[in-house]
C-alpha cells in the first residue's frame, strides 16, 4: 500500500517539469495532503552504483554527514531487520537562522535488486 502511494505521489506524468539545470530536473505538482507543492529532483551521477551508494547510504558516520551541509548528525536508533532501520537525522539551522535546527526520526528501508540497483527512502 505504501509503495503504491509513493509511486502515485511521485508519478512523473502527474508532475510539471521545470527547465533542466546542469543535468538536474526538478518536477512539482500541488500536494493533495497539504497546501503547497510536492517536489521531485532527478539527476544522473557518473559512477558505479556501489560508489554512489557509499556516498548516499543512511548509516552513522557515513559519507553523507561529511558532504551534505544539511545533515549535521545521523544516528541509528534501532536496527529492525537487515533492510529496515529507525534513524535520527539532525539538521542545522537554515535561512540565516530563520529556520531552527530540526530532528527527524525516519523508518528507512534499503532494498537491493538482482541487477545491482539499490533503493532507499
TrEMBL record:
Keywords: Lipid transport, Lipid-binding, Transport. GO terms for molecular function: cholesterol binding; cholesterol transfer activity. It holds the Pfam family START. The keyword Transport applies. Residues 1-121 form the START domain. May be involved in the intracellular transport of sterols or other lipids. May bind cholesterol or other sterols. It comes from Notothenia coriiceps. SUPFAM superfamilies: Bet v1-like. One of its GO terms (biological process) is cholesterol import. This is StAR-related lipid transfer protein 5-like. Signal peptide: none annotated.
